[in-house]
Amino acid sequence: MLLDTTHLMETALLVLAAYLLGCVLGYGIRRVLYAARGTRQRTAIATSAAAMALPEIKRSRSPAARLAARVDEPMPAPARVVQPRVIEPPVIASRPQPSSRTTKSMDRAPAALLAPRGKAADNLKQIKGIGPKIEASLNGLGIYHFDQIAGWTKANVDWVDDQLAFKGRIGRERWVEQAAKMTRVKADA
Question: How many domains does the chain have?
Fold first, then answer.
């Protein structure tokens, strides 16, 4: 297998030409962009009457001279010191009396337990539509057993729907009927 050297030479020359063109363009662009910074001396210097009056002041463009000039300048005034704020602990007000709306809402709430009976809660995930998150939410509301769900009224279902933010899900998935069936199965066992 023979390598065609003409193609290799052409490719190498094109890469070299692209590199050199990039160097030239980069140099030109850098010179144009950084000319405003004062890093290059300009050929045309505008002189004013005030500059002609003080010929002994000569500004050097070297970095060492600029640094030396900064050292001789006085330090700027320190920035305003911010005083730390003392945060007072919040004052806890007495608990407000439940409004009539809250009282009505509590009347709709199903019977809740502080803890599961017999130290073991039923596996509410056996009801279709209840997953681990909803089971944890129901446990947080004091609902641990199938018989609690089986005894829900329409008002109880509406209240739990509001608490779980699942409008109509309990009715669509028939949680009450499923819980009643699970309660019967549990009682038969």
Answer: 1
